[in-house]
Amino acid sequence: MSKPDKPYRKHAVAGHTLSPETQMMSYGYDPKLSEMSIKPPIFLTSTFAFETAEAGASFFRVALGQAEEGDPESAGLMYSRFNNPNMEVLEDRLALYDAAEEAAVFSSGMAAISTTLMALAHSGSVILQSTPLYGGTESLLRKFLPNYGIKTVDFFAAASEAEIREAAESAMALGPVSVIYTETPTNPTNDLVDLAACNRIADMIAEMQGKRPWIVVDNTFLGPVGQAPLKLGADVLVYSLTKYVGGHSDLIAGSALGASEPMALVRGLRGYLGTNLDPHTCWMLLRSLETVKIRMDAAALGAEKVAAFLRDHPKVKRVRYLGFLGEGNRDAEVFKTQCISAGSTFAFDLADEASAFRMLNALQVMKLAVSLGGTETLICHPGSTTHRGVDPELRKRQGFSEGLVRISVGIENPDDLIADLAQALDKA
Fold first, then answer.
1. Rounded to whole angstroms, how far apart are CA atoms 417 and 101?
2. Range 285-289 average pLDDT
3. Which residues contact 289 (CB under 8 A, 6 or more apart)?
4. CATH code: domain of residue 376
């Protein structure tokens, strides 16, 4: 864990280890520093005064990786592009659920993803990526990063270890593999990437090219409550905090967290690019972190009921819900190994796009909108919205159907959601 040296960074009481949901209420914040306010105030300032010129110089040396003997371990408050009290408390708490050494927050999920990939990959290197990914990430990897000399080679999320190995060999033929990037479960098809296999592939690449690629996992769909990829060998996790962690559809934010070595590179590039998060949104996320577990648990219970209804409906061709994987197949084994929960976001397929649009237009309780992880149920047609920028042929290769609909079940009464779906499907 990061920064365990202060009394307000307690991990245990009288030998009893505190759970993350308890630490969300107070970890990293000392009321004595803020007029005894129970909640951190919002620090709306661009810059911070130094006690001495020497202290300011030492902070900047530490921040720029030029620390000298006698300098503090971490930079003190300097300028809100680098650090801010709200940002620091938020990063401390974000690291707890995933047992990360460091965390950094960003102005959006895509800011976190792009800054992380640009910090860990370099011109001439290759990113080995799973597919499908969130549409913005897919476009970043396939359309933008090649302009900077970074190539990509993909493998399907549900690929076997032998297939991932084959993709890795193709990637190494193009240049050194710097990053293995995955999203699991996938958005929106809910395929699972075998993270243990990715870990073994990274070891193989290290033997062949002399340097181990960083394993970066987008953990937005199930994390931080339903999946912990750092415990399975991942180096860095990225999140759209807009989704489950924010949880109220009222903010845009992202994060990267993981081991200190790669996070030093990510944090350094964030300072140069200015992709940091503002203090007010940090404060809002601190509010949301206090309830993230109970919200995600409640939504997952509701999703199980909604998915069961859809599975039995004659107009629904397929339900892509992780709780329906059965036993004895590759996906079921991966789910059992690396997932704690089936989550509350999944997809289902109707006959075609026209049927999907008729159903979506008839809904009266659910919100027809992109995004996911809010307290309200959100539903959309990804092929025409979130993944519109992905080449249509690639979407077909990734397993999209014309009638694929994504639903993110919120914390409403699931019986009400089922009633809404029932009347809307009548019009499909």
1. 40
2. 98
3. 24, 90, 93, 94, 245
4. 3.90.1150.10
